[in-house]
């Protein structure tokens, strides 16, 4: 594949530091829209969410871009191409957040993409192909029991409907009311055409890049996820009067079982993530031997065979542990398959990163992203930047400014390479 | 020590089976006083508790016994002695229960004692020394944050005061109101003299007697108890994006720590009971690595040095596990010393059991009892009978009738030996 030389210090490109100032200002503007809440709470179709999408639409209009709003509230800002306007080179991420989320998850990809578009427009003018920045309406599943409803609608995979949030409010009513509020002059109301490629810029939300002291992560795949509920049933009894040898202690059995699972996970693959996040004892009383323990298992890997392997080992171990007065029952309730992202786009980004002298490594994403939806309909790739201490889904979520800059630089180079 | 021959089949003694019928009737009468509740709920000074103590007082009056009620609501029924009335041979247990408790815990000792007194009175008439049956007001700590308030008052050790239950109701008001309701003609209102000996008949609430297929447990000691809160602090993080090698998982550390404690407990002594009954994760979410775990440790043994030994080992292990991003903190909040019960009374009961051809074994009580208070002021012993499957503090609590009978037989022989 031919690689054009990108010289980010060429006289026709502005100082990226100036671009960073504007990106920082844009991030602050959106993040300050709901100043009284702990962390970011842009739940889909909430007032804070509407204000954010409204601001983005306004920036698009102010920039003279082609501005579209679809029926699910996803915003599309297009810099229309000159010679191949029907070919769309897209970037973006999601506008919603989790409850008490951080300032960068999703928003960095949206505004980083906008910044790349602004930089290219200001210095190089109109591209040959159309450049599109997307702010998907919803990805996190933090309000309604659904995820990726925005990207699933754009990809024509599913039109989410018929849900209620925990206050009993109806998804469809909330959606139409919010879209109605956002609609205005100059804003097209349609479902835009699918792009030729999609690149999502995102914070890593993990610790690999920081640990390796590398600024750029090039994402080859998104892990598959399996989730289980494990129920360990023993016999509750008096903590003082029941001799140790006569106990069927569900908590002690759980300790041994989790210990074994941990070793099994390691043996299957050091990359297999194995997490017990939720756990509850019954009766959960200081002086009563626990009669029952229920806990969750969350397993992720890019390789389906390895996930199957661990699942079989866990089932076998549960059977091994089970006796008359102590049973272990494993029940799977989530099975999300892994996805491979586009290798050519990744290789192109690796090349561009080299040219920009940005250290990079290849990794899988351990979290779900809109890219796992988009990859089903168009060549898709992701660019990660480091997360400080891997913190995400919390107000303390942060990335050093030079790293935010590195991501935007690479994205800009990639969009230039694809659209100009 | 001289041992009189006791022949339970002598013509002057009634059929013990007849005695069992009456005991069963008495147990049913008290247990049916609150038929609409799940299990027994005779919380101290509650209406159900007042009804039960009231019924016991009435039986005492009907039997022509000397009936006393003290300021804490403890009931004393005396068969006054002929030649040494000031020397009191006492038996009994507690009238209160836990929430949703069983039909025998405490009540078997009270009504079993009453049955022994009735049997002796009917067949042998007046004893030389005074025979006393006691129903302590409160032992379980199931309503107010206190335990053994009845026996502590009788033993002149402490006058519990100034407490509130979880509904904010005041102990002293509840106490005086209940005692006022129970007061009536023929009921003496005083704090009786301490006894020369105290024997408590009780269900084992454990599994040793049933496992050994032995009807009688002779209690040599009551275990000391230590209770701790352990706090394991790691770093909460994303379950998918945090590589296994970069985690500070508080739950996994807890698993390893509890595993180690279990082995340490075994190495200190097979008789040391070690129970983790309560445990909570933070944030307790499926896809978040637990950042904190808090759990309880309940340890019991009759030997203080062994309890100290385990405590030291646990502290050392906590320190061993502690690193920069993972700390384990152990905090002790209960330290109840073990007590030895009277060896002469135990030996006498062993002898009597042999004469009655009742299989017996010596054991420590793993649960607290009024006897651990009484032993501080008078020679005290306990007689245990088996619990089916060791179940207690639950409606399913049960003991086979022949075993209930065996306990009453031995108690009767002991009271005869001491008072006639």
From TrEMBL, chains A, B:
For this UniProt entry, the molecular function terms from Gene Ontology, in alphabetical order, are: hydrolase activity, acting on carbon-nitrogen (but not peptide) bonds, in linear amidines; metal ion binding
The entry's keywords: Hydrolase, Metal-binding, Zinc
Q: Which residues bind Zn(2+) 2?
A: 105, 140, 393
Q: Which note does the record give on the cofactor?
A: Binds 2 Zn(2+) ions per subunit.
The protein's superkingdom reads: Bacteria
Pfam families tied to this protein = M20_dimer, Peptidase_M20
Cofactor(s) recorded for this entry are:
Zn(2+)
| Residues involved in allantoate binding | 227, 287, 300
Which segments constitute the Peptidase M20 dimerisation domain? 224-319
**Has UniProt tagged this entry with the keyword Cytoplasm?**
no
Q: Which positions does UniProt annotate for Zn(2+) 1 binding? A: 94, 105, 202
Q: Which family does it belong to?
A: Belongs to the peptidase M20 family.
The protein depicted here goes by the name: N-carbamoyl-L-amino-acid hydrolase
Native source species: Agrilactobacillus composti DSM 18527 = JCM 14202
């Amino acid at each position: 594949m031919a690689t054009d030389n990108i010289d980010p210090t060429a006289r026709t490109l502005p100082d990226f530091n100036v671009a960073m100032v504007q990106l920082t200002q844009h991030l602050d503007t959106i993040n300050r829209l709901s100043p009284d809440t702990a962390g970011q709470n842009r739940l889909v179709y909430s007032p804070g969410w509407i204000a954010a999408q409204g601001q983005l639409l306004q920036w698009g209009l102010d920039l003279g871009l082609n501005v579209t709003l679809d029926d699910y509230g996803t915003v599309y800002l297009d810099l229309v191409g000159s010679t191949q306007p029907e070919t769309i080179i897209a970037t973006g991420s999601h506008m919603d957040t989790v409850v008490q989320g951080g300032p960068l998850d999703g928003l960095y990809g949206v505004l980083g993409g906008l910044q790349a578009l602004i930089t290219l427009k200001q210095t190089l003018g109109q591209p040959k192909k159309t450049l599109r920045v997307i702010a998907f309406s919803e990805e996190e599943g933090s309000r309604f029991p659904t995820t990726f409803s925005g990207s699933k609608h754009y990809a024509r995979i599913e039109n989410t409907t018929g849900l209620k949030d925990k206050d009993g409010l109806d998804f469809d009513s909330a959606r139409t009311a919010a879209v109605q509020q956002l609609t205005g002059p100059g804003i097209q109301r349609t479902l835009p055409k699918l792009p030729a490629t999609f690149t999502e810029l995102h914070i890593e939300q993990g610790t690999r890049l920081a640990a390796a002291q590398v600024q750029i992560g090039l994402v080859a795949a998104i892990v598959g996820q399996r989730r289980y509920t494990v129920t360990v049933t023993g016999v509750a009894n008096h903590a003082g009067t029941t001799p140790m040898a006569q106990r069927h202690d569900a908590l002690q059995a759980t300790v041994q079982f989790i210990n074994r699972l941990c070793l099994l996970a390691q043996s299957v693959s050091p990359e297999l993530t194995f997490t017990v996040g939720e756990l509850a004892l019954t009766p959960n009383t200081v002086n009563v031997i626990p009669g029952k323990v229920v806990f969750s298992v969350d397993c992720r890997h890019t390789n389906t065979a390895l996930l199957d392997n661990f699942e079989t080992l866990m089932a076998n171990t549960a059977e091994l542990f089970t006796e008359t007065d102590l049973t272990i029952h494993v029940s799977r309730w989530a099975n999300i398959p892994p996805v491979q992202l586009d290798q050519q786009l990744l290789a192109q980004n690796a090349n561009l990163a080299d040219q920009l002298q940005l250290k990079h490594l290849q990794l899988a994403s351990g979290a779900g992203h809109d890219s796992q939806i988009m990859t089903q309909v168009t060549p898709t790739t992701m660019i990660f930047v480091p997360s400080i201490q891997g913190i995400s889904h919390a107000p303390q979520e942060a990335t050093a400014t030079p790293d935010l800059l590195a991501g935007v630089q690479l994205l800009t180079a990639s969009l230039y390479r694809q659209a100009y």
